[in-house]
Amino acid sequence: MSLAGVPSQFPSHSDARIVAASSAIDTLMERASVALEATDYFAAQEFCLRAIEKARRVQDFERIARITMPLQEARRQVRHLATDARDAGNVFVVNTLPALDTKIEAGFYLLEPPLIGLDGRAFREVARGRKVPILALVKEPTTSAGRWPMVGVGVGEFENVVARVQVEPPASLKHWKEKSLKNAPRELLPDSAWFMSVQEALGDVAIRKVNPLWPAAHRIDDFIELLDAVPDHEKLSQALMFTAKDAMTAPQPKMPRRRPLVDNPLTF
Fold it and tell me: Does residue 104 carry a pLDDT above 90?
């Protein structure tokens, strides 16, 4: 008897891949939940990041939405630990990335030139790998008006993504004349409130970079990439969650995600 036209009782290769990915994601999230309960916030963060990458690969929007909140909570707790260290006096200015054998202390870090935005991401990754709670911001050269350009850079599908904002320097450093802040007395360095206000400003800029008229499935990728640039912004995490929920019921986009400028046939 021919089976032509009769649906198979076995899943297709594509279906099997999705089922396997879903199972792997659920296992990772169970481990993240256990890690959160055990206050191992770095492990919880790693499990969430691995899970969100797997969910993104198979466009499992429902799981992306569910992963976002545990990831936000793990990062919040790490940030609280970094803030406690800053409040105890751990604030540092660095202009070179640490060597492999250099100890990284918990606290807040201000990276300055010649370091650039991508170095800030690399520094955070090193600290995360060593389970050291930090909050790191990157300052670009001071403008002629005396403002500080602050930047966050993340790795994108086509090219790096960037969030940038100009802010007023801390009042304690407004009259600092030296080009580098490396020699500034520690009591003049920014307090926790200034660091957090800059992080909020960077995250707000990142949110505004995502056009709400773009397809939800594409906006998910944008928010994930921007969270790589500005990981400690809770509204940015929540924007990812809400967008993933939208994508669960939105029609799948027929056009591919936006291409980088160099691949655009309508540009020179």
Answer: yes
